[in-house]
């Protein structure tokens, strides 16, 4: 099992249940097409088929060679908002990917990663098969979804072992290279697109400049949050280490999608962890957080009181 060092009790559970293993993900896809309805006649059945396709593709594709017990599935939400359809079967919109995992020895679930993709453009016709080949660009929608799946694997595996998600960084990078050469919708895949598109996300994760930050994800989750019930002081220490690392990486690569996405998903959690620190440590945390995540200054200000 992929997380035997963390979830040893799951081995017993799965043994009792007869080695019942499943695919990697528990993806929940929510499709919003209200803006399309306002613009044109939209077939609800077609939209239902599209949502089913996305759910089935993400949840039923085998993405790794590891065995996952039911309780080990990676929980993800994909919120898709379709905003325009210029002609039949062609859609434009945006998507939000949210990846989470449970914290060991607690009933708390932490968000690993939140990502907003503003270039969710694809073609879909009901009852028309979509083909996916990770080594040869086929069609836009399965390629985008496969990219999301590998991004989710990166952040989940990095949280359980140091740089554990590296094989999936390479897979995501390969998907981007295939798509940027062949996709008709290059804005989401190309380096000339916006600074938070899929190209720049995987570029950050591939870059050696971000390696310390990725290593910090193991500290934050496995050595930090996972011991919070037994040793909250150690959790706070690891979180502060990660914030200092984020500061160093941010000085090299300011306004990067990976660092920004971390704080988009973590601001409330960071506040709740660090508010319990000693006044001197809270003041240090406040200075770091305001410098790294200035849009949440009002929240962090309470650390300095």
TrEMBL record:
The entry's keywords: Signal
Lineage: Bacteria, Pseudomonadati, Bacteroidota, Cytophagia, Cytophagales
Name of the molecule in the record: DUF4835 domain-containing protein
InterPro entries: DUF4835
Organism this protein belongs to: Dyadobacter psychrophilus
UniProt superkingdom: Bacteria
Signal peptide residue numbers: 1-22
A UniProt-annotated Pfam family: DUF4835
């Amino acid at each position: 099992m992929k997380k035997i060092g963390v979830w040893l009790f799951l081995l017993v559970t799965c043994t009792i249940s007869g080695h019942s293993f499943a695919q990697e993900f528990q993806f929940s896809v929510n499709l919003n097409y209200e803006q399309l309805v306002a613009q044109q006649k939209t077939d609800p059945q077609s939209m239902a088929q599209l949502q089913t396709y996305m759910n089935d593709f993400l949840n039923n594709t085998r993405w790794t060679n590891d065995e996952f017990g039911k309780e080990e599935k990676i929980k993800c939400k994909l919120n898709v908002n379709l905003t325009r359809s210029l002609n039949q079967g062609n859609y434009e919109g945006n998507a939000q990917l949210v990846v989470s995992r449970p914290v060991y020895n607690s009933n708390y679930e932490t968000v690993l990663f939140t990502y907003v993709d503003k270039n969710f453009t694809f073609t879909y016709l009901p009852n028309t098969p979509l083909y996916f080949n990770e080594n040869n660009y086929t069609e836009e929608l399965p390629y985008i979804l496969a990219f999301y799946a590998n991004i989710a694997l990166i952040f989940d595996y990095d949280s359980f072992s140091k740089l554990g998600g590296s094989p999936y960084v390479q897979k995501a990078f390969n998907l981007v290279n295939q798509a940027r050469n062949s996709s008709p919708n290059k804005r989401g895949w190309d380096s000339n697109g916006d600074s938070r598109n899929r190209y720049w996300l995987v570029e950050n994760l591939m870059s050696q400049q971000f390696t310390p930050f990725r290593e910090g994800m193991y500290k934050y989750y496995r050595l930090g949050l996972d011991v919070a019930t037994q040793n909250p002081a150690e959790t706070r220490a690891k979180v502060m280490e990660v914030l200092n690392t984020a500061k160093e990486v941010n000085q090299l690569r300011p306004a990067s999608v990976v660092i920004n996405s971390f704080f988009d998903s973590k601001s409330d959690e960071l506040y709740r962890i660090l508010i319990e620190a000693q006044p001197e440590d809270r003041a240090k945390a406040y200075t770091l957080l305001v410098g790294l995540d200035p849009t949440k200054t009002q929240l962090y200000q309470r650390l300095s009181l």
